[in-house]
Design a protein that fits this description.
Blueprint: E1 2-7, H1 13-21, E2 28-35, H2 38-47, E3 53-55, H3 59-66, E4 70-73, H4 80-89, E5 93-96, H5 104-117, E6 121-123, H6 131-142, E7 148-158, H7 173-176, H8 178-182, H9 184-195, E8 199-207, H10 213-218, H11 247-252, H12 257-260, E9 278-285, E10 290-299, E11 302-310, E12 313-322, E13 339-346, E14 352-353, H13 366-375, E15 387-388, H14 389-408, E16 412-413, H15 414-418, E17 452-453
Parallel strand pairs: 1-2, 1-4, 2-3, 4-5, 5-6, 7-10
Antiparallel strand pairs: 6-15, 7-11, 8-9, 8-16, 9-10, 11-12, 12-13, 13-14, 14-17
The structure holds nicotinamide-adenine-dinucleotide.
Residues 7-13, 34-37, 40, 56, 74-77, 79, 97-98, 124, 126, 182, 363 line the site of nicotinamide-adenine-dinucleotide.
């Protein structure tokens, strides 16, 4: 059984903590906890009786004393590299949250530490593990749509979820790389993995159109304060975060803010924000694919659409994660269930609407599958779900190049930034035979079984 230490005991750490103390208690043992905030550290320690806690300055001492096999890194993005490198140099393997890191220099430092230490780095790209996205990978790997040449990927964050990136550390590029790195790293990793290739050139456009002071004014919140707690506009604002109304938010953030001044509920219409909420990129890949990508963070609904066009047909996945947000900012109750639809249409054949696998829980069902893979004995990883530092670099690089493209006002060659990063093992290339269909034979494709033919 492997032993684990966690650095960063905030929101995301709760998932790993819960897994190691609950469903995966028999698969791994927690031996240490570390955080810069004594209140959040105490909150985590109370959940894990007997597990010692360490201040941020004592991280190296924690590794020396508790000797974990693996360190789980769940601090804010800009701090990942430092902790990953220190853990590797201390002889530990690392499971890090996404993004791997936020800039090219930090990528290079992680790659060097990995090379020198020979230890393992796993990036928690939970989105890959979702059963529906895995089915899409299976479709692409089967060659049913032939050589893919074009992709379109649109992601919409609603005003409940999207707004949350404008309240705290994410809202400043130096902490998160902006949504290009912090959020889109999931999407760029999915594209790299689905397409089994790495990016070559990125041309980006981006702006902040919604989370701006003038929108707050236009919505009538002219009396707003710098944060939701105590804000005169609180009762009228659909963007409020009600920390006092949530035991979880109070315990993690409200009750602990006196230690470090970390305010979880800063106003989303603040002039201090310096990241985009509306972004588009044209991405050219090493294998010739061109992708059009967009992300907006102020939508009335949440979901995404991804389309791959190939020489033998096309496949389209449409997801609606949430249909609406209420005027008070809460989600519509009862919540409409998340919906997914995958349509595969070979040339000269009718469209197939695939029968989808069951997917329960957060992030399209990806979290639970990922935790099983990370903590329990790994079985055959036929779709290449487990992502290493190379996948972390190549996904972060799209966002890092997009940030550079915004500054330069021109396309950016990713190789300029990626240095000597090797190409990851993305599972077999999703390219089928080059020839166009003559006679399409559905029997060759097991995932068409049970599909509805339109
Ligand atoms: N994969 C996903 O779907 C997903 C979802 C949420 C968050 N995340 C990732 O998880 C990470 C953490 O996000 P979060 O929402 O939990 O943030 P958070 O702010 O809730 O937690 C971060 C924790 O790190 C601590 N910390 C800050 N500076 C530190 C330092 N120098 N040393 C030690 N601890 C320090 C903070 O006190 C806090 O407890 C981020 O990288 C984020 O991108 C991933």
């Amino acid at each position: 059984m492997k032993t684990y230490a966690i650095v960063g005991t905030g929101h995301r750490a709760q998932m790993y903590l819960g897994a190691l103390l609950g469903a995966h208690a028999a698969d791994g043992r927690l031996v240490g906890l570390c955080d810069s905030n004594p209140g959040r550290l105490a909150h985590a320690m109370a959940q894990a009786p007997g597990v010692p806690g360490f201040a941020a300055d004592d991280f190296d001492a924690m590794l020396a004393q508790t000797r974990p096999d693996r360190v789980i890194v769940t601090v804010p993005d800009y701090l990942h590299a430092d902790y990953i490198v220190r853990a590797l140099r201390a002889g530990c393997d690392v499971i890090t949250e996404k993004p791997l890191t936020t800039d090219a220099d930090a990528c290079a430092r992680i790659l060097a530490a990995k090379r020198e230490s020979g230890r393992q780095v796993i990036v928690g790209f939970n989105y890959r593990y979702s059963p529906v996205r895995t089915l899409l990978k299976q479709v692409l790997m089967s060659g049913i749509i032939g050589h893919v040449h074009n992709a379109t990927f649109e992601w919409q964050l609603d005003t409940h979820h999207g707004a949350d990136y404008f309240r705290r550390w994410h809202r400043n590029r130096e902490n998160s790389g902006g949504l290009w790195v912090h959020k889109a790293t999931h999407h760029f990793d999915l594209l790299n993995w689905w397409l089994a290739t790495v990016p070559k050139r990125v041309t980006a456009l981006g702006k902040r159109v919604f989370y701006r002071p003038e929108i707050g004014d236009a919505l009538g919140f002219t009396d707003r304060a710098d944060r939701c707690t105590g804000c005169p506009a609180f009762a009228r604002c659909g963007f409020r975060l009600d920390m006092a109304g949530s035991a979880a938010l109070s315990a993690l953030y409200a009750d602990t803010e006196t230690y470090d001044g970390y305010l979880r509920d800063k106003c989303v219409f603040s002039p201090d924000i310096d990241i985009e909420d509306s972004m588009s990129a044209l991405i050219e890949y090493a294998n010739g694919v061109t992708a059009n990508y967009t992300l907006t963070a102020y939508n009335p609904c949440e979901g995404y659409r991804v389309v791959f066009d190939g020489t033998r047909g096309r496949v389209e996945l449409t997801n609606i994660e949430r249909q609406a947000v209420q005027p008070d900012g809460r989600l519509v109750r009862p919540a409409a269930p998340e919906t997914n639809r995958i349509v595969v249409q070979p040339h000269f054949a009718r469209p197939y609407v695939l029968k989808l696998p069951e997917a329960g829980g957060l992030h399209g069902g990806g979290d639970a599958v990922m935790l099983r893979r990370l903590f329990a004995a790994a079985s055959n990883d036929q779709y290449g779900h487990v992502a290493d530092e190379r996948a972390g670099v190549w996904s972060a690089m799209v966002g890092i190049a997009a940030n550079a493209s915004l500054v330069r006002g021109a396309g950016v060659e990713v190789a300029e930034l990626a240095g000597d990063a090797a190409v990851p093992d993305y599972a077999p290339a999703p390219f089928g035979p080059a020839e166009i269909w003559q006679n399409f034979d559905p029997a060759r494709y097991p995932f068409l079984e049970g599909a509805e033919v339109l």
